[in-house]
Amino acid sequence: APTLGQLAAAKGRYFGSATDNPTLTNAPYTAVLGGEFNQITVGNTQKWMYTEPSRGQFDYTQADRIVDFAQAHNQVVRGHTLVWHNQLPGWIDTVPAGELLGVVRNHIANVAGHYRGDVVHWDVVNEAFEEDGTRRQSVFQQKIGDGYIAEAFKAARAADPNAELYYNDYNIEGIGAKSDAVYNLVRSFKQQGIPIDGVGLQAHLVLGQVPSTLRQNIQRFADLGVDVAITELDIRMRTPRDATKDAQQAADYRAVTNACLAVTRCVGITVWDFSDGYSWIPSVFPGEGAALIYDENFGKKPAYWAVYEAL
Ligand code: XIL
């Protein structure tokens, strides 16, 4: 039977998974990771706390292992992420306001420069908006101001001219105040000639709550002249699983896959790891989980077969 990666490739797309370093030594895990997908996202170890743990000191040891794995398995890599308010090293808070833009530019030049030619997409800026569409008051927003997002994209373009540059966020899958804010950002970047190539819809979704405007929302971004990717898909439920919830989850995965395939510029789908035993959900949403397409023992769930059929 074809893999999800092969089915997606036949439609000019990718179907990928995030992964993290601790699982790279787990043979049953890596058999699926290397065999099933044609794209990998570096789930943690390209984040700032790993890549620049002290100011001006860069470390790519862990992320390189994931990129090497992907290349050995003919998988393209999404880089994740250059500028984000979480998983920052502590020293960031001590940078004087007047120096922070230079620090951001230097970080991007180094990290995107190191991976130049090795990543197809960069999530340049992650999660910069609040639910109401106002700017999140991150250290970057507070010390640099509104312009930090444009500056990050310009620095990323300079560091790796061939990587496609994405703005990535959650709760922007459907039309609403937050996705409107991202829409307006992309439109203004396009008008001003600030480089941006794509919008990542994280899609950390809740069982039975795929937004009804998902396809329309993907289409309106595409109509601005950017690609769209589903970047961190998982669909969580109250645990334990049962057959009814599994069937709903399968329908939800099918709906997301169909919405992406309906828009030419929706270039691919990434699950935020692939097995329920290796998902971030239970640690962050107590009582919830079973959000992915394989169970803890790498058995294919109904959600897997729904994606398979939709692709
Ligand atoms: C998560 C990782 O999966 C966890 O292992 C880590 O502890 C926290 O970050 N949005 C993002 C991802 O953009 O980087 C986050 O990843 C999940 C939410």
Describe this protein's structure:
- The chain has 311 residues and is α/β, with parallel strands linked by helices.
- It has one domain: Alpha-Beta Barrel (TIM Barrel).
- It is built from 12 helices and 10 strands.
- The chain has an 8-stranded parallel β-barrel, surrounded by 6 helices.
- Helix 10 (243-261) links the parallel strand 8 (227-238) and strand 9.
- The chain is globular.
- The chain starts with a helix and ends with a helix.
- The structure holds (3S,4R)-3-hydroxy-2-oxopiperidin-4-yl beta-D-xylopyranoside.
- (3S,4R)-3-hydroxy-2-oxopiperidin-4-yl beta-D-xylopyranoside is lined by residues 20, 43-44, 126, 202, 232, 280.
Brief summary:
This is Beta-xylanase. The protein is an alpha/beta fold. Helices cover 41% and strands 18% of the residues.
Measure the end-to-end span.
Answer: 13 Å
Strand order of the largest sheet: 1-2-3-4-5-6-8-9
- Structural class of the secondary elements? alpha/beta
Strand content: 15-25%
User: Low-confidence stretches at least 5 residues in length (pLDDT < 50)?
Assistant: none
* Secondary structure: helix percent: 40-55%
What's the main sheet like? 8 strands, parallel, barrel
What is the CATH architecture assignment?
Answer: Alpha-Beta Barrel
| Rg, Å, rounded | 19 Å
CATH class membership:
Alpha Beta
* Each distinct ligand: (3S,4R)-3-hydroxy-2-oxopiperidin-4-yl beta-D-xylopyranoside
Mean pLDDT metric: 98
Query: Using DSSP, what is the number of strands?
Result: 10
Q: If helices are DSSP runs of H or I spanning 4 or more residues, what is the number of helices?
A: 12
Order of helices and strands: HEHEHHEHEHHEHEEHEHEHEH
CATH topology: TIM Barrel
